[in-house]
Amino acid sequence: MTKTAQRRTVEKVTVRPVRAKPPERGAGRRLPDQLRAYAFLLGGLVCFGLFSWYPALRAIVIAFQKYTPGAPPEWVGTANFTRVLDDPEFAAAWRNTLTFTLLALLIGFAIPFVLALVLNELRHAKAFFRVVVYLPVMIPPVVSALLWKWFYDPGTGLANEVLRFLHLPTSNWSNGADTALVSLVIVATWANMGGTVLIYLAALQSIPGELYEAAELDGANLLQRVRHVTIPQTRFVILMLMLLQIIATMQVFTEPFVITGGGPENATVTVLYLIYKYAFLYNDFGGACALSVMLLVFLGIFSAIYLRLTRSEGEDA
Amino acid sequence: MSSTRTLVSPAALARPRGRAVYWTVFTSVVLLFALAFLFPVYWMATGAMKSPDEVAQTPPTLVPKEWHLRGYTDAWDLMQLPTHLWNTVVQAAGAWLFQLVLCTAAAYALSKLRPVFGKVILGGILATLMVPAQALVVPKYLTVADLGLLNDPLAIWLPAVANAFNLYLLKRFFDQIPRDVLEAAEIDGAGKLRTLWSIVLPMSRPVLGVVSIFALVAVWQDFLWPLMVFSDTDKQPISVALVQLSQNIQLTVLIAAMVIASIPMVAMFLIFQRHIIAGISAGSTKG
Q: Relative to the CA of A65, which of A211, A247, B179, B185 has its CA 20 to 30 Å away?
């Protein structure tokens, strides 16, 4: 790419010597050019600096400080970390968040894959399926959460009504300590699976048909074709979405905040919810930042793997 | 449509048994989709039209016995929806505009103007992709507070610009525009800004559309960040207001407000569905 560009400039030098630019390396290095380039960059750089780079550094600094807005910060070493670690809610928050992520992977991952697999075989009403499956994604998450809170209502909620209609035992849903987390996973899956389904569909469509034909000639049945053709062919997309989903679900906040308020018995307090509580309920910004740094480090690892994989795949292509 | 071979062979589908299976599966999927994705929306839209007694009754009614518009009109008046909707529109529109102007300019500079340290800056921007956004809300909140931007729409607009994904999307697109085209414009006497405005932007309509949709949807759907920065009730967007008001308001009125809050994004989706769906599908396979 750069090589051809370089060749082109050289050609131009010979054709239009009057307009000739200095060779690639020096091009645009003159001061006015640089000032102009930075004028274009300025707004973006200020915003990234103030709202991305600086907060990232600041989180680390405040994690080691006693920080109250308006008062000078005070260095406290690792006191924030030890205090947060001693909080019984800390273990609950991490346990809930990891369970949520795991359940979301089991429920929110298998269902869209199977759904996409089936949709890809259907020859009719394709546009209908795509629009309908994506509809919940466009409903504001707060509305989805409130909607399901209403469905989960133990007295008049639709969820129990459906169970009664099917003659099944009713459940406490989001109000029961042992069912609350699963109930939230169902909401998140319902609200977000549209995007996953569409991405899988696109991946499935890029599988060459000859592979299925060859597999069939070799006597592979439907399940064997899924196992030996579909899954290996979409392996990369599956892996990417899995990483993205881990990163996204580990930051869950809206559903527990709106539907359960972290309860019952701390069953749905998540790490992000705990960060919010430290900052806005306890006014303990040091503790909130200590928690943020832990979340950051944990998720940063997944993000790094994700970026690394997407980049190497991009270079192959 | 496309005759490419999928998991099931066309021959198997053509057989009577294959056909029977196909139509059974097709019908069940249609029913499943209608139940899982359309029914909740129907339930919400009609629930708001039931009387307060009817909405609380067991077993529930599938169709309202009497249709009331009271839920909707009450929601509009009692919950001050016009104010909150307007706040959301202002926040979303501003975030869109700031992002479009500043990200485009920055992406253009990084892609075509070769600033010294351009690679370092791009690296710094891409590195933020590794930082999960929500993990930084607290220090970001403190920064916004220090700048005196709490309860100010700028608290939504400016952080929205720091969107590495959209910036990178734009930069990648600009990279594909041949240098020759820009040089031709320069020879004709166009400045950098003029080149951006009259050559690059018209060529970039598809990517600008994608970025616009991403920007609007992100602000409209966000909850945690506006919850933090808008403590002033009159400044809150609809998502925050809904949750704050949900505690002590009649159920039918709340449901009506939920429907109203959903309409703008759902309408936008129905209008631009082809582009949105194509964008999601294409963005993923390219990686």
A: A247
Report d(CA B36, CA B34) in Å as an integer.
Answer: 6
Give me the residue from B30, B217, B223 closest to A254, CB to CB: B223
How far apart are alpha carbons B36 and B69 in whole angstroms? 26
| B interface test, pick of A12, A107, A146, A210 with most B CB neighbours within 10 Å | A146
Asked if residue A2 has pLDDT above 80, the reply is no
Q: In the prediction, which pLDDT does B283 show?
A: 60
Residue A221's contacts (CB-CB under 8 Å, 6 or more residues apart) are none
Residue A4: is its pLDDT beyond 60? no
Distance between CA atoms of residues A247 and B132, nearest Å: 7
Residue A59 Cα distances to A54, A55, B129, B278, angstroms: 9, 6, 17, 38
Q: Which residues contact A158 (CB under 8 A, 6 or more apart)?
A: A150, A151, B43, B60
Which of B42, B50, B130, B169 should we substitute to test contact with A (largest number of A Cβ atoms within 10 Å)? B130
pLDDT tens digits along A270-314: 999 999 999 999 999 999 999 999 999 999 999 989 888 887 765
Cβ neighbour number for residue B28 with a 10 Å cutoff:
11
Residue B100 DSSP SS3: helix
Whether the CB-CB separation of B108 and A38 falls below 8 Å is answered with: no
Residue pair A112/A196 in contact (Cβ under 8 Å)? The answer is yes
For B16, the 3-state DSSP assignment is helix
Please judge whether A37 and B134 are an interchain contact, meaning their C-beta atoms are less than 8 angstroms apart. no
Most distant CA pair in chain B: distance in Å? 76
CA angle, B83 then B87 then B89, to 5°: 115
- Collapsing DSSP to helix, strand or coil, A285 comes out as helix
Instruction: Look up residue B270 and give its two tokens.
Output: 């129905």
pLDDT over 70 for what percent of chain B? 97
- Strands (E) located in chain A: 65-66, 74-75
**Helix, strand or coil for residue B245?**
helix
Instruction: Give the ranges where B50-129 is alpha helix by DSSP (H).
Output: 52-55, 70-78, 81-98, 104-108, 118-127
Q: Does residue A138 contact residue B280 with C-beta atoms inside 8 Å?
A: no
Give alpha helix (H) positions in A208-284: 209-217, 222-225, 231-249, 254-255, 271-280
Contact A138, B269 (CB under 8 A): yes
Report residue B159's pLDDT band, with 50, 70 and 90 as the boundaries.
Answer: very high
Residues of chain B contacting residue A50, judged by C-beta atoms under 8 Å apart: 143, 147, 158, 162
Specify the pLDDT at position A146. Answer: 96
Please tell me which of A220-234, B147-161, B172-186 the model is most confident about, judged by mean pLDDT: B147-161
pLDDT mean over A39-58: 95
Percent of chain A exceeding pLDDT 70 equals 89
Assigned token pair, B265: 């994004």
